[in-house]
Design brief:
The structure is a single chain. The protein is α/β, with parallel strands linked by helices. It folds into two domains: about 200 residues, Glycogen Phosphorylase B (Rossmann fold), CATH 3.40.50; about 180 residues, Glycogen Phosphorylase B (Rossmann fold). About 45% of the residues lie in helices and about 15% in strands. The strands form two sheets. The protein has a seven-stranded parallel beta sheet with strand order 3-2-1-4-5-6-7, with helices on both faces. Strands 10-9-8-11-12-13 form a six-stranded parallel beta sheet, sandwiched between helices. Helix 1 crosses helix 14. The protein is elongated and about 65 Å long. The relative contact order is 0.12.
Length: about 375
């Protein structure tokens, strides 16, 4: 028997990191996983480097008959008993393949808090063809319920973080040396895909306000995406080119985070905000928007400051508050570090997913030991 995990992501974003972490944890525990990913993608490279059981399969769109047939054949050959889909494309293609292969247990992870589409295809994907939907936050669950999903179908399991990259020693001057900043420059960073819902334009508008108070504040934008040219243009028109720096896609995120003084996330839609977890692991104070699942990570004035979404003035005031009050910034960063280590490890997330798998197996009348062979008693996993 085997467990199939499918992630059709072509980039290395929060969702791909989380599917990679989960499959890696399952493999570490000796569970029979198969990981279907896009050929040549960053996820494929990371999975092969980690020596995970990878099946390379191109998934072109949500309707891809060739991919459906190939995945269904692989599922039959490997005696797939559970399929877990990690994004929209894999959910569409994977659920059709699972139907052909008669896979008894099917799970979807939903990471975004965008409203569900009202068409028949979406309703089938999230209701008829799955046994559980994992929402990464209560905020995502709320949107799913509003979209028509039954509450009993939804399991809230937050994202997890691998702390090992953040336990190394890095120079706090890493970015200062690269970008020739002075020692008294205050570095504010965001790590996010350059997409509209991440709210970069509001951060740039906030930077224009901040320039009136302290040009020593520098805004570091890490990530690539479709809005790069538009944001470049906005930066020039706002006359904040001396304060805003685009670094593009980077693999050295821990080094960058340890160089910052403050982390910001300006989204107006956000499932959870896994980049905030990374920032907290580096003891960074956080300024973020009160939207989606973010308030489940950031407690206002305890682990960070929360502001209304799409409000550049409020964003600027919060950044300026921590720029001027370094003692408060330090306390918020330390508390965030404590919280993220207590509640958001990849190990604890994997354990919660395993418990869900066990419950679904019991509900289907399948022995959990066929799905996830362990020595623990089955009764431990009953509701």
């Amino acid at each position: 028997m085997s467990l199939f995990h499918i992630d059709a992501g072509k980039e290395w974003r929060g969702g791909q990191r989380q599917s990679f972490f989960l499959v890696r944890e399952l493999a570490k525990k000796g569970y029979p996983v198969q990981f279907i990913v896009q050929p040549g993608s960053p996820l494929y490279q990371s999975a092969t480097e980690a020596k995970l059981p990878v099946i390379s399969q191109k998934i072109r769109a949500e309707i891809d008959p060739a991919a459906v047939l190939r995945i269904a054949l692989a599922m039959k050959r490997k005696k797939c008993v559970l399929a877990h889909f990690h994004d929209a494309h894999s959910a569409a293609v994977g659920s059709m393949a699972a139907s052909l292969a008669k896979v008894p247990i099917r799970v979807i992870t939903r990471r975004v808090d965008f409203p569900l589409k009202k068409n028949l295809f979406s309703r089938r994907k999230y209701n008829k063809d799955v046994d559980a939907v994992i929402a990464i936050s209560e905020g995502v669950k709320k949107v799913l319920v509003e979209g028509g999903l039954e509450r009993g179908l939804i399991e809230v399991i937050p994202s997890g973080i691998d702390f090992s990259p953040f336990e190394k020693t890095y120079s706090s001057d890493y970015l200062r040396q690269e970008l020739s900043f002075s020692s008294d420059d205050y570095l504010v960073g965001i790590v996010a895909h350059l997409a509209d819902h991440k709210g970069h334009k509001y951060l740039i508008q906030a930077t224009k306000i901040l320039k009136e108070y302290s040009p020593k504040i520098k805004v570091i934008i890490v990530g690539e995406g479709p809005l790069r040219m538009e944001l470049d243009k906005q930066t020039k028109e706002s006359e904040v080119e001396d304060m805003v720096f685009f670094l593009g896609f980077r693999k050295d995120i821990p080094q960058i985070l340890f160089s910052l003084d403050l982390f910001v996330l300006s989204s107006y839609l956000e499932g959870l905000g896994s980049s905030i977890l990374d920032a907290m692991a580096c003891r960074l104070p956080v300024v973020a928007t009160r939207t989606g699942g973010i308030p489940e990570l950031v407690a206002h004035r305890k682990t960070g400051l929360l502001v209304p979404p799409t409000d550049p003035s409020a964003l600027a005031r919060a950044i300026l508050k921590l720029y001027n009050d370094r003692e408060l910034a330090f306390r918020l960063g330390q508390k965030g570090y404590d919280v993220v280590h207590k509640k958001f490890s990849v190990e604890s997330r994997a354990d919660k997913v395993i418990l869900l798998y066990k419950r679904l197996a019991l509900k289907k009348g399948i022995s959990p030991t066929l799905v996830l062979p362990e020595k623990k008693k089955i009764d431990e996993y009953r509701d």
